[in-house]
């Protein structure tokens, strides 16, 4: 793992938290549908960032980072639903939601600056 790159590190740590949240939702709340969507989008962020690190061109890099940005946005959506429906408490959800928003901001900045360079 490229621990020197903040977005790589943050997305990996976020994925670990999403996996633990998924486990909690399945075991404690017996919720399987929304939590699976959260798991997919929340772990996809880091996977796409990792793929972008090996991009073949700036356009390929931009594409992968753009997908990661979309996945971060989708993750916010699932977290919002899980909080509104009381599957996640406000405390549980807000921390994850805050991290997801931070990742969105980081990715948005990366996408914007990469577009300017192309």
Automatic annotation (TrEMBL):
A Pfam cross-reference name: 23S_rRNA_IVP
Gene3D superfamilies assigned: 23S rRNA-intervening sequence (1.20.1440.60)
Superkingdom, taxonomy of origin: Bacteria
SUPFAM superfamilies: IVS-encoded protein-like
Record's protein name: Four helix bundle protein
Organism expressing this protein natively: Eubacterium limosum
């Amino acid at each position: 793992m490229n621990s020197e790159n903040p977005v790589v590190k943050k997305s990996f740590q976020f994925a670990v938290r999403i996996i633990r949240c998924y486990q909690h939702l399945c075991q404690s709340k017996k919720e399987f549908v929304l939590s699976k969507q959260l798991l997919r989008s929340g772990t996809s962020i880091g996977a796409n960032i990792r793929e972008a690190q090996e991009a073949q061109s700036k356009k390929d890099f931009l594409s992968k980072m753009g997908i990661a940005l979309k996945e971060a946005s989708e993750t916010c959506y699932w977290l919002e639903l899980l909080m509104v429906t009381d599957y996640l408490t406000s405390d549980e959800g807000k921390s994850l939601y805050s991290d997801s928003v931070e990742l969105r901001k980081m990715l948005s900045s990366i996408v914007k600056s990469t577009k300017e360079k192309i």
